[in-house]
């Protein structure tokens, strides 16, 4: 098991935002975090990344307790892929990917041939080699996501934490991102990602952790978690979860609100 959370609690000051959360993910799995705004998804990520202390419970990364890992060891196991990242300087895409190698050389070293080779391989993995010399700040949101994924690959971590990676992407780029994530899982990476679309976990998730008020509302395979009952309990909205076949005969799941939330009809939305 690559990632295991046992009764994890934590938050800010002396207030627990995340309460007693247990879940796990194996190599090659996509663990999707779902739940309404403010339910504690980002806070749970901070606990997993070691940037917030636990007030209770245990987190194991590849069998080792998180608190026993040095920052360098942690960086070699788990990588954070932010939703949006604007560097101060006009770095090229290659520079940003090479930043993933920071834990492989000391602060005074320049990247070596082996680091550049790793960066090119990572760019190839996400099919973004053509961006190598482009200015990172001039890239689109979707292209930046690919570069940040390549940076995480370069870090040699096996677990990628992605906080709402699809939030700023148009529909086509969301699809591309989901394909890249699925591909990474097939290569053995473990992806932990939050999303506001119930269709993402339904279509690509291996397991879904649905949170409500900082606690686990449901955890398990998508078919047992993305249900009309759970969606109504957690989001307070009636939803239909419908299995369809697309034009190529592939089965898909779509989630539709049964009727507009109360009050919406009257304001014309
Ligand atoms: N730095 C902080 N200090 C104090 N409280 C915080 C801090 N960051 C978040 N919170 C609070 O913790 C709770 C959970 O926030 P969190 O960002 O983890 O939720 P989320 O599920 O990621 O939300 P969203 O889906 O809107 O991104 C919220 O009530 C929020 O106000």
From TrEMBL:
GO molecular function: ATP binding
The organism of origin for this protein: Enterocloster alcoholdehydrogenati
Gene3D superfamilies: P-loop containing nucleotide triphosphate hydrolases
Residue intervals passing through the bilayer: none
Entries under InterPro entries matching the protein: AAA+_ATPase, ABC_transporter-like_ATP-bd, ABC_transporter-like_CS, Metal_Ion_Import_ABC, P-loop_NTPase
Pfam family, one: ABC_tran
Record PANTHER family: IRON COMPOUNDS ABC TRANSPORTER, ATP-BINDING PROTEIN, METAL TRANSPORT SYSTEM ATP-BINDING PROTEIN TM_0124-RELATED
Keyword Nucleotide-binding: yes
Residue ranges occupied by any ABC transporter domain in the UniProt entry: 3-238
Protein name per the record: ABC transporter ATP-binding protein
Keyword tags: ATP-binding, Nucleotide-binding, Transport
Lineage of the organism: Bacteria, Bacillati, Bacillota, Clostridia, Lachnospirales
């Amino acid at each position: 098991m690559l990632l295991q959370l046992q009764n994890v609690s934590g938050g800010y000051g002396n207030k627990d935002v995340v309460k007693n959360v247990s879940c796990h993910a194996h190599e090659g799995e996509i663990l999707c975090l779902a739940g309404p705004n403010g339910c504690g998804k980002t806070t749970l990520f901070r606990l997993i990344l070691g940037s917030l202390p636990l007030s209770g419970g245990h987190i194991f990364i590849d069998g080792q307790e998180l608190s026993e890992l040095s920052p360098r060891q942690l960086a070699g196991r788990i990588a954070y892929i932010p939703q949006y990242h604007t560097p101060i300087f006009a770095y090229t895409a290659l520079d940003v990917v090479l930043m993933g190698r920071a834990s492989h050389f000391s602060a005074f070293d320049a990247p070596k041939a082996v680091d550049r080779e790793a960066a090119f391989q990572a760019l190839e993995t996400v099919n973004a080699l053509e961006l190598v010399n482009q200015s990172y700040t001039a890239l689109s949101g979707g292209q930046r996501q690919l570069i940040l994924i390549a940076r995480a690959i370069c870090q040699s971590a096996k677990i990628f934490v992605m906080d709402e990676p699809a939030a700023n992407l148009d529909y086509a780029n969301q699809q591309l991102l989901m394909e890249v994530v699925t591909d990474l899982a097939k290569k053995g990476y473990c992806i932990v990602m939050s999303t506001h679309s119930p269709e993402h976990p339904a279509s690509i998730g291996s397991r879904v952790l649905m949170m409500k008020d900082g606690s686990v509302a449901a955890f398990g395979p998508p078919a047992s978690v993305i249900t009309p009952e759970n969606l109504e309990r957690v989001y307070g909205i009636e939803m239909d979860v419908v299995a369809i076949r697309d034009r190529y005969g592939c089965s898909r799941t779509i989630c539709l609100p049964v009727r507009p939330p109360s009050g919406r009809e009257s304001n014309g939305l």
